[in-house]
């Protein structure tokens, strides 16, 4: 039995002995002060409108959504014994959720965020006072709950954690094979992925956070925000984001749930196997969870995209990408909780035993509910509505086919693939997309290599493969091929 199988078996045994494990959610519980003007505000003066308190914080919102979809979350966080803290604990107590993981104290200042919305419900400005999270949600506090992490079906961490606390959380999960979900929170904090990517199973960035994470993992600011307009298609958007997506997958992250706002989600992995069920299969002990699994399994057949049987190798060439559209909303009231509810819906569904695609479809349905209310999380969800929306999303999902791969596939069925010019173009295409492994595979299959081919393979140098770049240069010298200027420049830039 391999290490991963052993870890899964141990976790199943512990779960059988001690009852159903719960999703562990680690991160911020924040009081949101939300100000919505009734007219467009002007600088240096007040505007009439509505100001209200709302329970917030990425991790807290996700945990609340999880609880309303049939899974009892185990929250690990830090709160002050003050007015904001008491307001945040009110729901936890009324819902009967465990408080043991929440660190409380008079010396802790409960995190507070003040958000000013525009008249369309979009955040226009805000101020966050969340320093106490990094100060009090420490590795020492988190490690006390390693048993909960070990027996959980999944652990979700938000990037509000300090880097040491984030790393401790991820390592504790990795030691026992518990799947880890990293929620980036913001562009600035998403960079914290750099030290923990190898432990992460899922991550849910938006486009800007994806670019930021790819830059952090590349250790160079080589990715820039994408340019799009009303005519940008999902396929063209994917092609622009593909190099950044590949950096995350190459770093060890198994599944990227790339959120595109009103355009839905791009579900990305190295292979279809990663989009199927994760962890041990078990039935939820909660009535809502049982009904969710039964209903979604019937409405969203798991073999729609996974009809092949047997072992499937994870791709070393190009990501497997599926687009799941958003659900049309009756009205858009506020957008702040949508992303958190998407993650919450997916986490609850994974805990119920659904596969990844089914779970993300439920997440998109849960996000729709958040957009239609003023609070970050709806007061309740109805199973019939969630199921209907998830079915609509799931049956509308489409695989995104890389046009470059399509062309290469056609070439493989012809003899034209031996043409040096064609091969040079293929290598250049894969190098520019960051798929260095496949560019190298095509390169090695070519019997006759000239200086142009070697020059094209200088893509190694542009994608932080310094050792391979030098090996390529040595190979070129041994074969007596004269180095061209571009390759020399690439090597000298390392």
Automatic annotation (TrEMBL):
Biased composition (Basic and acidic residues): 1-16
InterPro entries referenced in this protein's UniProt entry, alphabetically: Carboh/pur_kinase_PfkB_CS, PfkB_dom, PPR_rpt, Ribo/fructo_kinase, Ribokinase-like, TPR-like_helical_dom_sf
Domain named Carbohydrate kinase PfkB: residues: 22-271
Pfam families in UniProt: PfkB (PF00294), PPR (PF01535)
Region (Disordered) location: 1-20
PROSITE patterns per record: PFKB_KINASES_1
Sections of the chain in a coiled coil: none
CC terms in the record's Gene Ontology section: cytoplasm
Alphabetic keyword roster: Kinase, Metal-binding, Repeat, Transferase
Domain of life the protein comes from: Eukaryota
GO molecular function list: hydrolase activity, acting on glycosyl bonds; kinase activity; metal ion binding; pseudouridylate synthase activity
Family the UniProt entry places it in: Belongs to the carbohydrate kinase PfkB family.
Protein name (record): Carbohydrate kinase PfkB domain-containing protein
Native organism: Mikania micrantha
Lineage of producing organism: Eukaryota, Viridiplantae, Streptophyta, Embryophyta, Tracheophyta
């Amino acid at each position: 039995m391999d290490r991963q199988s052993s870890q899964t078996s141990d976790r199943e045994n512990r779960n059988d002995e001690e009852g159903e494990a719960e999703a562990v959610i680690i991160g911020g519980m924040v009081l949101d002060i939300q100000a919505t003007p009734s007219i467009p505000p002007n600088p240096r003066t007040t505007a009439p409108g509505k100001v209200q308190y709302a329970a917030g914080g990425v991790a807290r919102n996700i945990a609340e959504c999880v609880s309303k979809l049939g899974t009892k979350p185990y929250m690990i966080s830090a709160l002050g014994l003050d007015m904001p803290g008491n307001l945040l604990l009110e729901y936890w107590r009324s819902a009967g959720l465990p408080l043991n993981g929440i660190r409380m104290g008079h010396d802790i200042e409960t995190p507070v965020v003040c958000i000013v919305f525009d008249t369309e419900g979009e955040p226009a400005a805000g101020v966050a006072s969340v320093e106490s999270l990094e100060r009090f949600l420490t590795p020492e506090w988190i490690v006390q709950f390693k048993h909960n992490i070990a027996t959980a079906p999944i652990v979700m961490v938000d990037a509000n954690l300090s880097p040491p606390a984030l790393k401790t959380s991820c390592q504790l999960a990795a030691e026992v094979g518990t799947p880890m979900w990293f929620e980036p929170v913001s562009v600035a904090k998403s960079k914290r992925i750099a030290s923990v990517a190898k432990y992460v199973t899922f991550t849910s960035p938006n486009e800007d956070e994806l670019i930021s994470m790819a830059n952090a993992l590349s250790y160079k600011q080589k990715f820039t925000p994408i340019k799009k307009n009303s005519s940008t298609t999902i396929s063209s958007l994917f092609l622009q984001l593909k190099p950044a997506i590949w950096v995350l997958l190459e770093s060890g992250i198994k599944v990227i749930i790339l959120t595109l706002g009103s355009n839905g989600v791009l579900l990305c992995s190295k292979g279809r196997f990663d989009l199927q069920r994760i962890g041990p299969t078990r039935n939820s002990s909660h009535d809502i969870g049982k009904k969710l699994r039964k209903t979604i399994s019937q409405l969203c057949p798991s073999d729609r995209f996974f009809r092949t049987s047997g072992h499937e190798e994870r791709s070393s060439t190009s990501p497997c990408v599926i687009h799941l559209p958003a659900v049309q909303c009756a009205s858009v009231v506020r957008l702040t909780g949508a992303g958190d509810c998407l993650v919450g819906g997916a986490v609850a569904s994974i805990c119920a035993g659904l596969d990844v695609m089914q779970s993300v479809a439920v997440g998109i349905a849960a996000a729709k509910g958040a957009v239609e209310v003023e609070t970050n999380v709806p007061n309740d969800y109805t199973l019939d509505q969630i199921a209907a929306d998830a079915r609509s999303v799931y049956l509308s999902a489409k695989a995104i086919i890389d046009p470059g791969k399509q062309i290469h596939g056609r070439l493989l069925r012809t003899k034209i693939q031996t043409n040096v010019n064609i091969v040079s173009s293929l290598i250049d295409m894969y190098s520019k997309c960051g798929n260095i492994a496949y560019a190298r595979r095509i390169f090695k299959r070519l019997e006759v290599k000239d200086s142009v081919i070697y020059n094209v393979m200088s893509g190694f140098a542009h994608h932080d493969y310094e050792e391979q770049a030098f090996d390529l240069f040595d190979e070129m010298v041994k074969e007596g091929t004269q180095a061209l200027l571009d390759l020399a420049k690439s090597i000298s830039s390392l």
